[in-house]
Amino acid sequence: MDKVNDFLSSILKEGDVVVIGCSGGPDSMALMDFLMKFRKKLNLSLICAHVNHKVRVESDNEMQWLEEFCKKNNIIFEGMCIYNYGDDNFHNEARNIRYQFFEETIKKYNAKYLMTAHHGDDLIETILMRIVRGSTLNGYSGFKKIVTKDEYYIVRPLVYVTKDEILKYDSDNKISYVIDKSNFSSKYTRNRYRKIVLPFLKEEDKNVHLKFLKYSNMLSEYDEYMNKEANRLLKKVYNNKEKYIDVDKFKILDSVIQNKIITNLLRDYYEDDLILISDVHTNLIIDLICSNRPNSKIYLPNSVIAVKSYSKFYFETETSQIDNYEIDLFDSANLPNGKNIKIIEVASANDNNYCRLCSKDIVLPLRVRTRRSGDRMKVKGLNGSKKVKDIFIDSKIPISKRDLWPIVVDSKDTIVWIPGLKKSKFDVSKNKKCDIILKYY
């Protein structure tokens, strides 16, 4: 346990505030004991943050036992209970709730560190599980010894030691703790690795956990380098304002960079739910982007959709939304697609975001509506009419946006303008007189 002591000595300073994620088990109580010893030297402020998952009959008694321990030892106790779970993935949801509670506690006490009792065996299990399941370069590295957050650090001091070393430390120092019997159940994947795979590895090398730690650190270093390179190239292919990837620019990137860019975007999109995403999803997305299909989708966990629409790729959330509307246009109209149409006095521009009309050529009032089956418009400069559907296709408008795209009609339902795309034969040239000027913005 000397390495744990040396590590804590290297980071802790006089008067630091430390939140300890503590279950009351042998690992977290060993960490608690270490920090209590450092408290005497450095006048630390210690806060015990405990989450009662309410899934075992012993949970309430364990929470009470830990609270009493903290009172006896002058440690601030912060506890919470989880009464309802709505996610199919219990462990994922519990982890998210747990870390949200930890972060709230950190902010409450203005703590510098959140320390958890993840140890060397935990790291081995995590790495092996992710290798078997499939993950990213960052995922294969397991977890980091130190994670830098915006205003604090997550620190795992026990990563240098094994479970057996921790149990021996508890015994030698007469440290009390509670036992979670679910940790012995073969029902859970992690426990099967713990009971079957780890003993074999330790027979091969009793210090195998340090080999895995070296492996983890190495992958983390490579991942950090790849992140820098991917972020540099992301700026060249990603429209940050409109949140889409330029497909043509993306295709010419090296496959390793493509993978890293998609992985990073997914990480930003899923945040704490990244565990739901594997390399299978990443590969499917890259195949989609690089395919010859102009319009296609992939449905991802948590109702997220990966969309390729012509030369653009983006993520959207599957939600129920307005799929049709009809709005009278007098002075202005706020549209469900986030845009506006306004009647203005003068305009120097003459692109498709502006339309000039003469009231004598149409039947007022004007209306803005969504497209309808069979819609056609007499396009300015062309003989005859053209299907609105074909105008959308020619303009490469994503399928997801077509149903909300505004169509301006007069009172006889004659289409006079498709804002941002095409003008009708009713549009008046800029050098001629008109009494209605519309702006789309």
Structure overview:
The protein has 441 residues and is an alpha+beta fold. The protein has three domains: 215 residues, 3-Layer(aba) Sandwich (Rossmann fold); 78 residues, 2-Layer Sandwich (Uridine Diphospho-n-acetylenolpyruvylglucosamine Reductase, domain 3), CATH 3.30.465.60; 115 residues, no CATH class. The longest helix is centred in the middle third of the chain and has 30 residues. The model has no long low-confidence stretch (mean pLDDT 90).
How many angstroms separate the termini? 65 Å
Radius of gyration, Cα only, in angstroms? Answer: 30 Å
- CATH first level of the largest domain: which class? Alpha Beta
Q: Give the second-level CATH assignment, the architecture of the largest domain.
A: 3-Layer(aba) Sandwich
The number of helical runs is 14
Poorly predicted runs are none
Structural class: alpha+beta
- In CATH terms, what is the fold-level topology of the largest domain? Rossmann fold
Number of structurally distinct domains: 3
Give the overall average pLDDT.
90
Shape: elongated
Helix content: 40-55%
Largest sheet: 6 strands, mixed
Percent of residues in β-strands:
15-25%
| Fourth CATH level, the homologous superfamily of the largest domain | HUPs
Give the number of DSSP strands.
Answer: 22
Widest sheet: strand ordering? 3-2-1-4-6-5
